[in-house]
Structures are given as C-alpha cells and as structure tokens.
Amino acid sequence: MVRAAVLPAVGAPLEIAEIDLPDPGPGQVRIRLAAAGVCHSDLSLTNGTMRVPVPAVLGHEGAGTVVAVGEGVTHVSPGTSVILNWAPSCGTCHACTLGEVWLCANALNGAADVYAHRASDGSDLHPGLNVAAFAEETVVPASCVLPLPDGIPLTDAALLGCAVLTGYGAIHHSAQVREGETVAVFGVGGVGLATLQSARIAGATTIVAVDVSPEKEELARAAGATDYVVASENTAREIRALTGKQGVDVAVECVGRAVTIRTAWESTRRGGRTTVVGIGGKDQQVTFNALELFHWGRTLSGCVYGNSDPAKDLPVLAEHVRAGRLDLGALVTERIALDGIPAAFENMVAGKGGRALVVF
To answer: What are residue 63's DSSP bridge partners?
Structure first.
C-alpha cells in the first residue's frame, strides 16, 4: 500500500488515501519519492482551470529513487536517483520534429491512463500530469524519468522538475535575456524566485521583483532582485522610473492574470519583450489596440515549461547548482507532509511564501 493525495473530483478537497500500485510493466519505472513541490499548476487542476481525468493523484514536480524497472528499461536501474519529467516529448509529432519539444502534442496523453487503484474500493485512478508525485511511490513511463546529475541533493532536486526549468527557460530560452539587460519579474512564488535567480545568472543589471505582498521582498532580494515593487495601479510607472523612464528590456509574468499581463507589457520599453509564464483561466481577457501594438513594437509571447528540453537543460542547471549560482533550497519556504498540501494551496491563493515542498 502507498499513501497518496487523491483529487476525487474537480472542486473537491484532496483526500489522503491508500492506493494500490502495480508492478512496473514493459517500459515503466517504479519510483520511491523523496520530495514533491506544490506547484500552482496542481492548484489549477483542483479548480478546473486546467483539466485532466479524475479521480487523480496530482503532483508533477518530483524526485526520488528507482525501486524497480520493467522490461526494456535500460537508462535507469534500481537505486538510481531520478527527476520526474511530467511532459515527455514523443519525438514524432509536428512540434517535436521542429525541435520544439515543450509543445509536444502528445506530452500529456498519459494523464488519461489508469495507473493505480484506491485500496478501499478498487476504483480507477489517473496520474494527474502523468507522474502522480503526490504519493510515497509512483509508477511512470520510462520517458518520464531523467537520471539526476551528480552533486545535487535529492530532496531539493524535485524543484528542477518544474519551477526551475520553467523560470530558467523563461529567461534563457523564451526572453533570451542578454548580459546588461534589465528585467522585471511579476509574481514571487516558486517559479518567480527561480526566474529571479536565472535573470541574475544571465547577467541582468536592474532586476525588479513585483508582488502583491510586501513580505516577499526579502525572498526576492535574496534570489537576485535589485529592486522590489509592491503591485498597484502605479506599478508600470514605478518600473519605468527605475529604468530611466524607458521600461525594462524584459518582463516575465508568473501569475496568469489579465491585469498582471497587461502591466508587464506596459512595463517594458519600446521594442522590449514580455514573456507570459503564468497559467490563467479563459475568463482572463487581455486587450490591446492596434495603434499601440504598432507604436511600441513590443513582443508578447507565451512560455510553456520554460520552452525547455529537460534532457538538455538538466545538466546545465546541475552545473549552476554545483557552482553555487543556483540555490534550490532558497526557493523553498515550507517543508510539509502529504496532509499539508491543502494548506499549501491556501497559502498560494493568499500569496504567501515561495515553494512548499512535500518531503517523504
């Protein structure tokens, strides 16, 4: 038996329950989780902003140790420390053939599978975003497993599976921040903190962190922010004042709200770039007029999973960690057990803290 956090239905509270996991079949891997991060995407699944089949075991940002492998699995073996890749690329769809593996059309097909059953009644369970990391153990396709590079603490390594890949990729792949540029980061949660650290690594000079909570300033500055702005109707004006009235070269929005996206856009200089990382609902409508699009010459782009290729980016991130440039532990403001996830969701909604990490 394995304990897991089960979402019985959209809008229902999580239930801590015992589940039955099968032995890994051909091409599958069983993993004992060391830790799993509580991401805003998990919250979006509970409230229906994003949809996957339910009942489901959520959690997609995880790291652990291989317990057993199925037939045909050769890149990991029992005892291997691994990171979960919740969006594996198929390698054959149109996006994958273009090298845009973060847009793989088949990445989330596994979420529709039945991967386990409730111990109490045998009912089917789906694996959330493919990997079901909110559980003591999980069984996943081998494509969802990446060996952990040497020298990375296993527990904190869970953050590499989503927050860090997303934040690093937003800076280095999507916005392509260059040394000496100025950056604003909207939202100082787990992804926002990773984005701030990544902007510092890229050599940005002025790095402005924006959040509704004044209490997050210390976290933001520790991650690399040179300036901190408490979000208000004057945010864009304040950011322009910090950048010689020009606006920043790059704004990264990590919230997913229409007003924040619009403010990030208005905070960039003429010809600047705005990258949207936050996942918003269909009701969040952002409007622009045709003249301003022409006049300002700004670029607005979405960013999925940091526009990252985990297999290629993970070794790069590991080197930053080993060199002390990337501090995974600094993203974590709370270490909790499985039953602490609902409270972590509440803190997320309230705008409190950075990343909560479930430690098994």
So the answer is: 35, 83
User: Which two three-digit tokens encode residue 24?
Assistant: 């890994």
Of 131, 103, 177, the C-alpha closest to 39 is: 131
Q: Count of H helices and E strands in the chain? A: 11, 18
Give one DSSP letter per residue of 64-75, joined into a string: EEEEEE-TT--S
CB 203 within 8 A of CB 180: yes
What is residue 209's three-state secondary structure? strand
| 272 Cβ contact list (under 8 Å, min separation 6) | 247, 248, 249, 250, 251, 298, 299
Tell me the whole-structure pTM to 2 decimals: 0.96
What would you measure as the largest C-alpha separation in the chain, in angstroms?
64
DSSP string, 131-183: T--SBSEEEEEGGGEEEPPTT--HHHHGGGGTHHHHHHHIIIIIS---TT--E
Q: How far apart, in whole angstroms, are the C-alpha atoms of residue 206 and residue 199?
A: 10
What token pair was written down for 46? 């509970």
pLDDT in tens, 205-233: 999 999 999 999 999 999 999 999 999 99
Write down the pLDDT at residue 281: 87
Q: Provide φ and ψ at 247, rounded to 5°.
A: 100, 165
Q: How far apart are the first and last CA of the chain?
A: 15
